[in-house]
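BUG: 3D viewer hangs when loading the predicted structure for this chain

Environment: internal workstation, default settings.
Expected: structure renders.
Actual: progress bar stalls at 90%.

Input used:
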Amino acid sequence: MSERPNGVNGIGLDFGRQCAGVCRAMRSLVAVLLAFASAASAEGLDRDTLLTDAPAVPAVGTVRVTGAGVATQNTDNGATPTGSSSFTGSVGWTPIANLHGDVGAYFQVGAQGPAARVRYQLLNQFSHGVDLATGIRFKTVGFHPDRGEVEFLLAAGRRFGRFELVLNGVFGVETGGEQGKDVEAKAFAGWRFNEAIRAGIDGRLQAEVQDEARPSTTPRGRDYDLTAGPAVSWMVTRTFQLQALAGMAQPKKSDKTSPAGVLSASLDF
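Structure tokens produced before the viewer hung:
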């Protein structure tokens, strides 16, 4: 029996070429999925913790509404504004890649006023191994409630599998011709149990380094403000987050240590 020109051998060659094409397509699909998984594993660091600024910014077009409150025991039963209790509300927007701004109101014991912040993300973990952002914040209620302040921020963070670490350094300068300056150190370390639940330790230490407007010759209590404690975050949905902290506070101008609680909610549009 003679073999047809396009017989079994031709079918085998065609089948081999089809298999090669399918294999290349599968490899490309796997590469895309791995890249997506790597990018997804870095998600979550674009959200501020309760006390620490995020080292990344939300995706382009994201509008984020946030409200947070800090409650501590006043050191003198409310006679003077020396506590750390405060409430903030803000609306943020990412108009272009890596740039995020938010405006809102800041209410602290004894004073209140508007606040605004702009952050720009310089590095991302997927491409550079770490998330890094810089920013500037203006608020009319600063380290001293009766003075405004401009703050310069540097935030870095990284996810190591399920472990997350975020560090902030902040330098603040008083406005209105005053010469006061202060520095802040903020940090968060936590474990992500899944994409919805995360728990860890959050803390913020703020200290005055210069206050020429009000030189003091007698002790007035501590010159720093500390809030820290265990915190938990719950992504109720992909766009709605709840956070809570129960810890301790050491308010400025006081020698007392008191319990502190922080609550926060944010919603993306």
